[in-house]
Amino acid sequence: MVSRKTARIIQLADALSGRRVLHLRDAAALLGVSEMTIRRDVADNPGQFAFLGGHIVPASEIEGDAPYELAREADSHAAAKREACVHAARHIRPDETIFIDCGTTLEYLVDLVPENYSITAVCYSLNVAEKLTHKPNVRIVMLGGVYHPSSASFSGNSGLETLDSLGINVAFLSAAGIDPARGATCVHFHEVSVKQKVISLARESHLVVDLSKIGKLKPAFFAPIGVFRSIITEEGETQLPGL
């Protein structure tokens, strides 16, 4: 007789074969179990499933070249990321359009958008978009294109063309590394064109990172430090050492 856990794994695999991406909440409802049970099932079967920013994807879709594991990164320096976003949230103003970058740091910024603020939020990652859907007064503009499971984000000409039609007041950018000489870098090259386009269009851009990113250099360069209005960390909106 097939065990309950085995039956769940089979059901989950079948669901992903058609959808490719399944939110944790939807998976729990589909299988009639708790989200914690689904988390354990995914963790126990790394050869079949991967968990990215609240979404389950087939493990085969994770990019194999030094993948950026969104779920693991979400737990890294969480308190520092949250505190950096507390400082960044001061730049959110009602009736404006903001851009929220991909990654795990700026998820916390979404939580800090005041409920009574009517704003337009532009994003290109599933984890950020999902959080924005819970904000009643936020109009969401989701940039499309090719989906990249490694960062739960999209890239492509369609998204860049959408940006041309938008007026962005404030852009909040994330980075995986900040080097005093080389500038802001990220892990994935597919993010670069979106970040650079946004920086060129936004009235003001802010780099929001935790201090663990300082001094690191990642493979994909996207901007010199001087293009940002400010660099915001858990210590506040201050000039970083050596920059």
From TrEMBL:
Residues 5-57 form the HTH deoR-type domain. The keyword DNA-binding applies. PROSITE patterns: HTH_DEOR_1, HTH_DEOR_2. Keywords: DNA-binding, Plasmid, Transcription, Transcription regulation. InterPro entries: Carb_Metab_HTH_regulators, DeoR-like_C, DeoR_HTH, NagB/RpiA_transferase-like, Tscrpt_reg_HTH_DeoR_CS. One of its GO terms (molecular function) is DNA binding. It comes from the Bacteria. It holds the Pfam family DeoRC. This is DeoR family transcriptional regulator. It comes from Ensifer adhaerens (Sinorhizobium morelense).
